[in-house]
Amino acid sequence: MTQPDGARAESHNFQVDLGGIVEILSRNLYSGPQVFVRELLQNGVDAITAHRAIDPGCPAEIRIVTDGTTITVTDTGIGLTPQQAEGLLATIGASSKRDEWGMSRSDFIGQFGIGLLSCFMVSPRITVHSRSAATPGQPVCWRGSNDGTWSAGVVTDDELPPELTGPGTTVTLDVMPGERHAEHEVLRRRILSYGSHLPVTVTLARRGAEPECLSAAVAPWEMDRDAAARWCDEEFGFAPFDQVPLDVPVAGLRGIAFVSARAGHPGQEQHHRVYLRRMLLSERAYDVVPEWAYFVRVVADAEHLKPTASREGLFDDELLEETRQGIGTAIRDWMNNLAEREPARFREFLALHLTGLKALAVTDAETRALVASSVPFSTSLGMLTLDEILGKHGRIAYATTDDRFRALRPVAEANGLCIVNAGFSYDEEVIGQIRLDRPEADIAELDPRDVLGVLEKVDLGTEAALIPLVDAAELALEGQKLNIVVRKFLPATMAVLFLPNPDAAGRALEERQRRDEGLFAGLVDLMHPEKADDHAPQLILNADAGIIHQLAGAAVGGGSPVVVESAIRGFYVQALLSGRHRMDAQVRAWSSNLFTALISASLDGGDTA
């Protein structure tokens, strides 16, 4: 190795603790030593990019050769000047534009130096030969060792590797004994993983053999739909339900969001594959997609996103947040278009991912609008969207539990009352948010009086005939603080209907609001006028049910008081059970003794009190 005027290169010690830096790189910064392949590829791409800036027609090649123990990586980039070689590693911490580890990747030389440092994780010695496009007559050689020494100087053309025929750089690594990093197949897999979509020609060869091009693969975001679907199946392990093209100009991002054809759940973490200027950044990126979009997996390439110091993740800054929002908008637009143009396919999507869509709707107004217009809810009158309910019935009344809905559905269905079942995940929260979005709309939790209001009042003759049964019921159910009410309703097979006590304070406030707004004028007239506590639970006796008239006859005509009492209590217990309402100790005791009392009365001929 020679320098101008015959001067020889001098040996120097690094101005940093090289052993400590390599320890940081291997244990704290990088996921493993395999990243040296990516760093060398990145160095080559950056050097070629710099060379093309001054010579657009220059070759764009990275040639990698291995013999199983030694790796050489040659690029046709801009090369290093003698001054750059002298300061190669000194620039790593010198720039004011450092990353979170205090290292500078802000310029070509800073990046090149950090890339070299990663090589010390697999090689105790690194040799760099380089010819600069700016000073082609002064090729240089830089040698570094993990003992902390290095040397650099100008060399003759005869001292250069034979593959370095023009501007460019050759990096030679002597892989540590016992390690597999220089094995051909190991290198091949890593090069394909990191660099198969690079915009330069990357080849790998065993020493003395023909090279294989590893960078000719078409990127998935450049494929047609069928090819992209096959890629998803091969790489992500599922045939996609659909594909959402992604284009976020602010980040220079292009990609595809593959919609899973398998049901998932909110909070399920998906790993996305992200490239940065066509170099693989991470196969396990999770922060580039909104959390609610758990039903997609993304592959994308970005020009402008900022990598972390390890270049294995994305820096969480405003640009990344804008990118997340852009991807979220694309997915939301896809859902809207699917609902509008392909309703059958949208129903298929809902069957897989309805819970996630509702989870998003809780916090996202646009998705709530989509849910309100396109997602059918279970109601007492069939499957209807919330917008359809408002359009047809003028209001949304919802039951907060599935059990309460099931208990009221037969009566509501038979009498034309629309009740929404909001007993499933996120339903109540979504409806509550829609209520806030649309303050002018009549949306409220079901008031039991709404059910009572649609039931037909009985005529005076029927009411008089059933008074003895009402009195008997009040006596039999003493202690339950119930209002006993007589109405006619379908189905006639349902003898009684229990309407629970809503929250008294909340209902009083709500009723005042309703009265002020004039929305329920005349509702009080539909209530039982002689009851002082309008908010007490209601037990409705069905005047259309034959068994009710039989019991009334027994109460008047000398029937067994035990049978009448037990029957009334039995119907009450049944009504509570059907709606899964709470039963106190008194009701539980009745439930336990019902059959005993009825059997005893039957055996005694109805005379036992």
UniProtKB/TrEMBL annotation:
Residue intervals passing through the bilayer: none
Keyword ATP-binding listed: yes
Matching InterPro entries: HATPase_C_sf, Hsp90_fam, Ribosomal_Su5_D2-typ_SF
Keyword field: ATP-binding, Chaperone, Nucleotide-binding
Annotated signal peptide: none
Keyword Nucleotide-binding: yes
Gene Ontology molecular functions: ATP binding; ATP hydrolysis activity; ATP-dependent protein folding chaperone; unfolded protein binding
Pfam families: HATPase_c_3, HSP90
Binding site for ATP: E39, N43, D75, T169
Annotated family: Belongs to the heat shock protein 90 family.
NCBIfam families, sorted: PRK14083.1 (NF010683)
PANTHER family according to UniProt: HEAT SHOCK PROTEIN 90 FAMILY MEMBER
Full protein name: HSP90 family protein
Protein source organism: Corynebacterium meridianum
Organism lineage: Bacteria, Bacillati, Actinomycetota, Actinomycetes, Mycobacteriales
